[in-house]
């Protein structure tokens, strides 16, 4: 049975505790987050604000010249409603010189430049604000590899990375994030009219159900077929997961010595704290 | 002592120290232990139970050899714990390094300045998120032991996910089970508790019911990287009734008073221990194992 319902009170408690613990134990008390106007970053922001106090969260609005004005308005709604600190940095002046180097640059390349420019601002402000960068990638995106490596995937901690998109929606609703943000089509807003679901070729709701069977319930592809999923869809999703494994790990180090980082030098990040 | 026998108390007030730990910092954790022992004393506790690996933290990996102790009077950490045990019995979780430098996940019962018992974890989960078998040696004893409160069975986390260790300790005379855990929470769904919490509580209540024993479970709280430890420590009586419970996900010192005469009353009504056919178990086990 596929049941992606979550107890939002319990989820909220665990995630708020996680943010608080993982930021304060390493000597910080603040968080910085890129807020796009979408549901994922809104949720990360609101969780961080509840964990650390809104005065300790800096939400960065980082529009590019083609970004939808609606995205900025939605980001502002969250900032206003939850009384979170914010700063706006237009990344057009950072991005355009790179884009102008190759007038034939593909949409994907342009999108990557924007995502990585936002990462630069995020980490710069994390130093300036004395904060850790909180990530905004959900489990669906992470498994499908739908992100820019070292771009929107870059963060110090990620509170929502084990929640599927449909679960993010449940928690966002429970935390009072405006319905306009929850109900609009998800978009990376890297070009006008872009939506995640058009680009992926399937809806998050379909993907979440299949991923739940494949990943959480350890179903084989044949069992997913029996459960009623389309053969091509199953193949597409499994291929995406396999081909994007590199995005879910640090670069492998060529082992030479007896003790090598990543293989047999094993400590948690929380070592000593 | 009366006529050379241990005089058993009729009541036992215990405290479960549902703590968070500092990963790999034994000194900081020892201080926390000593503080909580003092607090438990104020609440008239006669026994305090700390969770699995309470002196070290849980996901130790390559820290294991650097945090190990010997549970003896000349060990600087145990010296202080043994001193504290003159006033109150203690169960503490630690890494033991034996004389041949094998490392065990261990729990010690200290009383009257002495080490009464040390249990080495016999089931090391090495699957899913767990990797204990990579870093630790497997314990090879499952024993009950005598205390001033009666005979006790002490087990660590995965040990009681298997039915045989509690069963063996029950046959070895344990009327009180002390179970310690560092249980990472997992299995989020629409229920108000994580799957792990539901499973562990169901199992502990079942052990209390089918063995007509007291079952005390001390679980830790806090986070280690992305892992959350869910707390929810419990005490069940020999009828399987919940006597006390710690909060979920929050540090707490939870007190419970066990009326040890409940063993008498429950077993007069329900003589499961009397009727247990151990020779039948033995002969069937022999048959099964000789296949």
Features:
heterodimer, A: 273 residues, mainly alpha, Rossmann fold, four-stranded parallel sheet, 4 strands, 49% helix, globular, B: 291 residues, alpha/beta, Nitrilase/N-carbamoyl-D-aminoacid amidohydrolase, six-stranded mixed sheet, 27% helix
Layout: helices, strands, pairs:
The complex is a heterodimer of chains A (273) and B (291).
Chain A: H1 8-24, E1 31-34, H2 39-52, E2 57-61, H3 69-81, E3 85-88, H4 92-99, H5 107-129, E4 132-133, H6 139-144, H7 165-174, H8 179-183, H9 196-200, H10 204-216, H11 221-226, H12 231-243
Helix pairs in contact in A: 1-2, 2-7, 4-5
Chain B: E1 11-18, H1 26-42, E2 47-49, H2 76-84, E3 89-97, E4 103-111, E5 114-120, H3 132-135, E6 144-147, E7 150-156, H4 164-171, E8 176-181, H5 195-211, E9 214-219, E10 221-224, E11 227-230, E12 234-236, E13 242-245, E14 252-259, H6 262-269, H7 272-275, H8 278-289
Parallel strand pairs in B: 1-2, 2-3, 7-8, 8-9
Antiparallel strand pairs in B: 1-14, 3-4, 4-5, 6-7, 9-12, 10-11, 12-13
Helix pairs in contact in B: 1-2
Number of helices of chain A: 12
- As a percent range, the share of helical residues of chain A equals 40-55%
Protein chain pair with the most extensive contact, residues per chain: A-B, 24 and 24 residues
Taking all residues together, what is the mean pLDDT of chain B? 97
Instruction: Give the CATH architecture of chain B.
Output: 4-Layer Sandwich
CATH superfamily of chain B: Carbon-nitrogen hydrolase
CATH-derived topology of chain B: Nitrilase/N-carbamoyl-D-aminoacid amidohydrolase
The succession of helices and strands of chain A, N to C, reads HEHEHEHHEHHHHHHH
Structural class of chain A: mainly alpha
| CATH class label of chain B | Alpha Beta
> What is the number of helices of chain B?
8
Main beta sheet strand tally, sense and closure of chain A:
4 strands, parallel
Distance between the termini of chain A: 40 Å
Question: How do the strands of the widest beta sheet of chain B line up side by side?
Answer: 5-4-3-2-1-14
DSSP strand (E) fraction of chain A?
5-15%
Radius of gyration of chain A: 19 Å
């Amino acid at each position: 049975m596929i049941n992606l319902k979550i107890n939002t009170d319990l989820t909220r408690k665990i995630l708020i505790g996680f943010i608080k613990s993982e930021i304060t134990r390493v000597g910080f008390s603040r968080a910085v987050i890129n807020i796009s106007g979408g549901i994922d970053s809104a949720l990360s922001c609101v969780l961080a604000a509840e964990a650390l106090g809104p005065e300790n969260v800096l939400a960065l609005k980082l529009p590019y010249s083609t970004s939808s004005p609606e995205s900025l308005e939605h980001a502002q709604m969250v900032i206003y409603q939850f009384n979170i600190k914010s700063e706006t940095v237009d990344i057009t002046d950072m991005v355009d010189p790179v884009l102008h180097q190759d007038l034939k640059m593909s949409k994907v390349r342009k999108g990557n430049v924007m995502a990585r420019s936002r990462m630069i601002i995020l980490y710069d402000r994390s130093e300036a604000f004395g904060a850790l960068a909180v990530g905004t990638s959900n489990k669906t995106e992470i498994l499908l590899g739908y992100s820019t490596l070292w771009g929107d995937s870059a963060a110090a901690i990620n509170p929502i990375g084990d929640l599927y998109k449909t679960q993010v929606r449940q928690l966002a609703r429970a935390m009072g994030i405006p319905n306009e943000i929850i109900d609009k089509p998800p978009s990376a807003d890297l070009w006008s009219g872009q939506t995640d679901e058009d680009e992926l070729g399937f809806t998050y709701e379909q993907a979440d159900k299949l991923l739940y069977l494949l990943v959480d319930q350890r179903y084989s592809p044949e069992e997913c077929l029996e459960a009623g999923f389309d053969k091509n869809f199953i193949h597409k999703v499994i291929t995406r997961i396999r081909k994007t494994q590199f995005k879910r790990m640090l670069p492998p180090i060529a082992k030479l010595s007896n003790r090598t980082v990543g293989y047999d030098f094993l400590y948690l990040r929380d070592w000593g704290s | 002592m009366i006529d050379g026998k241990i005089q058993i108390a009729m009541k036992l007030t215990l405290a479960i120290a549902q703590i968070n730990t500092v990963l790999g910092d034994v000194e900081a954790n020892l201080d926390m232990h000593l503080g909580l022992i003092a607090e438990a004393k104020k609440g008239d506790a006669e026994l305090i139970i700390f969770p699995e690996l309470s002196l070290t933290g849980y996901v130790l990996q390559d820290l294991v050899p650097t945090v190990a102790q010997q549970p003896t009077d000349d060990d600087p950490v145990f010296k202080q714990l043994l001193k504290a045990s003159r006033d109150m019995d203690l169960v503490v979780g630690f890494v033991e390094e034996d004389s041949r430098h094998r490392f065990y996940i261990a729990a010690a019962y200290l009383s009257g300045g002495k080490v009464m018992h040390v249990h080495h974890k016999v089931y090391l989960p090495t699957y899913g998120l767990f990797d204990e078998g990579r870093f630790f040696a497997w314990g090879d004893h499952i024993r009950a032991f005598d205390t001033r409160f009666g005979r006790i069975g002490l087990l660590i986390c995965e040990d009681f996910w298997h039915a045989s260790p509690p069963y063996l300790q029950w046959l070895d005379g344990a009327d009180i089970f002390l179970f310690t855990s560092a249980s990472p929470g997992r299995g989020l769904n629409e229920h108000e508790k994580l799957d792990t919490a539901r499973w562990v509580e169901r199992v502990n209540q079942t052990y209390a019911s089918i063995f007509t024993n007291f079952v005390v479970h001390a679980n830790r709280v806090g986070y280690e990287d992305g892992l959350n430890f869910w707390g929810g420590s419990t005490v069940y009586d020999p009828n399987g009734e919940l006597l006390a419970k710690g909060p979920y996900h929050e540090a707490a010192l939870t007190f419970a008073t066990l009326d040890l005469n409940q063993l008498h009353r429950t077993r007069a009504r329900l003589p499961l221990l009397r009727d247990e056919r151990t020779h039948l178990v033995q002969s069937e086990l022999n048959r099964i194992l000789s296949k």
